[in-house]
Design a protein that fits this description.
This protein is mostly beta strands. Helix content is about 0%, strand content about 45%.
């Protein structure tokens, strides 16, 4: 399975497309497809059919998935968009794990 550099809850900046430069929170990640959904970004119109009598059908806007390569994580420590480095470290129980590090300031993301 491909691991993405972004995680649910990260704040990211969009690097290309109509929403370039916009920031938002990651709502969903799909490592299988290499895609992410960012709050309020890449809005696509969806047609909704009325389900009940008297209900209006219509068009709603919802976030469409973006390729994860089009977004960059904003580091919560230095507030800058950054590439992500990985570091192996041990947790409290001495178990090895991998953490994400900001390439700009070195803080754990
Ligand atoms: Zn940083």
């Amino acid at each position: 399975m491909n691991k993405l550099h972004v995680k649910k809850g990260d704040t990211v900046i969009i690097l290309s497309g109509d929403d370039r430069g916009n920031k938002g929170k990651v709502l969903e990640v799909s490592p299988k497809e290499g895609k992410v959904i960012v709050e309020g970004q890449n809005l696509v119109k969806k047609h909704v059919k009325p389900r009940k009598a008297g209900e209006n059908g219509g068009i709603v806007e919802a976030e469409g998935a973006l390729y994860a390569t089009k977004v960059q994580v904003i580091c919560p420590s230095c507030k800058k968009p950054t590439r992500v480095a990985h570091k192996r470290t041990a947790d409290d129980n001495g178990k090895e794990r991998s953490v994400r590090i900001c390439k700009k300031c070195g803080e754990v993301l």
